[in-house]
Specification:
The strands form two sheets. A six-stranded parallel β-sheet has the order 7-6-5-9-8-10, sandwiched between helices. The chain has a four-stranded mixed β-sheet with strand order 1-4-2-3. The protein has nine helices and ten strands. Helix 1 packs parallel to helix 2 (36-46) and helix 5 (106-118) runs parallel beside helix 9 (227-242). The longest helix is centred in the C-terminal third of the chain and has 16 residues, at 227-242. The N and C termini lie far apart (41 Å). The protein is 35% helix and 23% strand. Strand 2 (22-28), helix 2 (36-46) and strand 3 form a beta-alpha-beta unit. It is an alpha/beta fold and 243 residues long. It has two domains: 2-76, 2-Layer Sandwich (60s Ribosomal Protein L30, Chain: A), CATH 3.30.1330; 83-242, Alpha/beta knot. It has helices at 8-17, 36-46, 58-62, 83-89, 106-118, 136-141, 156-165, 204-209, 227-242; strands spanning 2-6, 22-28, 52-56, 71-76, 96-100, 123-126, 151-153, 169-179, 191-195, 212-215.
Length: 243
């Protein structure tokens, strides 16, 4: 099954990662061959399998997405991983895994993928159902970081069990938890961080499976941060503590 990836960074990272088959690339007429477009053309020309690149009227790309930035690539579906591959990817390092409990918004998902990739997270686990998949919108929101990240679809309860069997401490992030301290011992070492959905937070079964549930300290008048912001802050705290 094929899908259309749009925007310059997303298409560039798909090419660079070499994890998907790329069937064709369309560039809007009038777009100059410089910057990221030049990078895309160079990579397309040097791929093992020659990629067809066409110049097309901009309205054709407008039908794909309004923010296509002058380029669209036809590719095969996102190659999902599994929990075992994520743990193997750690390669002797203390595993660092992000689990997302029924996240629904593509922008939030993309933001968390981008943060996780930047901080060296070894992989992300998402539920099999009732959650956003790695769609073209998510690839775009992550600026293509999704193409370099191992993402597994799994039963979250079973995934948490698998992490625990590998001596990985599982921390849930939820407003019902204890307040997280900056130098928290719970964010050191082998870690699985679980971020809840935008509205419901962590589901009861997932919360019970966590070794501990923590929340970010809040000083202002709003009650909480959205899932992407809260998850990104917690990932950064974990990254600093693990160092």
């Amino acid at each position: 099954m094929k899908e259309l990836i749009y925007s310059r960074n997303a298409v560039y990272e798909v090419l660079r990662a070499k994890r998907r088959q790329i069937f064709s690339i369309e560039i809007a007429e009038g777009v100059q061959d410089k910057g990221r477009i030049e990078d895309i053309l160079k990579l397309a020309a040097t791929q093992e399998q020659k990629i067809k690149v066409s110049r097309v009227p901009r309205p054709k790309l407008d039908k794909v997405h309004q923010n296509h930035q002058g380029v669209v690539a036809e590719v095969d579906k996102y190659p999902y991983s599994d929990v075992i591959e994520i743990l193997e990817h750690a390669k002797g390092e203390q595993p660092f895994v992000l689990l997302l409990d029924s996240l629904q918004d593509p922008q939030n998902f993309g933001t968390l993928i981008r943060t996780a990739e930047a901080l060296g997270v070894h992989g992300i686990v998402i539920p099999l159902a009732r959650a956003v998949d790695v769609t073209p919108a998510v690839v775009n929101a992550s600026s293509g970081a999704s193409e370099h990240m191992l993402i597994a679809q799994s039963n979250l309860s079973q995934a948490i069990d698998a992490l625990k069997e590998n001596d990985i401490w599982v921390v849930g992030l939820d407003q019902a938890g204890a307040e997280l301290e900056a130098n928290s011992r719970h964010l050191k070492g082998a870690l699985g961080l679980v971020v809840g959905s935008e509205g419901e937070g962590l589901h009861d079964l997932v919360r019970k499976k966590c070794d501990i549930v923590l929340k970010l300290p809040m000083k202002g008048k709003i009650e909480s941060l959205n899932a992407a912001v809260a998850g990104s802050v917690a990932l950064y705290l974990a990254y600093l503590n693990r160092k």
